[in-house]
Predict the structure.
Amino acid sequence: MTQPVSAEALRVAPGKSGCPINMTMELLGDRWSLVVLRDIMFSGNTHFRELLGASLERIASNTLAARLAKLVDAGLLSRDDDPSHRQKIEYHLTEAAIQLVPLLTELGAWGARWLPTTPELAIRAQLLADGGPELGQRFMDELRHIHLHRKPAPENGVLAELTAAYQQTARAAAAHRADE
């Protein structure tokens, strides 16, 4: 018996099975979808060129365009005209994408524990995991403020704390490499 789908369900093709893990992997299991969502979530970048230029993994422009279109079509991102420039488009997280924060937190914490990551790129995941559900909820509320209500990120919010920790850890790692 198939579970009823809520009116808020994402717009995706039927999967190979009705398994929720399979359906999630079909939507997000390619190499780039979660990375694009991560970049929008943590960088504050909402324009194509910003996302392309800031990509640590050097995503190709055609791949970025395809993933943005896929995520918009599925309902994980919204695509809006930028009021400051008529030829620019802004991409914003939807509620469904914001609710991926706990999943990304757990993926990051698992990767930091079991994989050869760098301290500066693992720090945000570690802080979110160490902060528990309360910090994750505060971060999700902040993302709603930014992406759903189109308000600026708070100067003293979770995103600012995570960014400061990343920058501090990156400086320390660079100094350590220079000393070697």
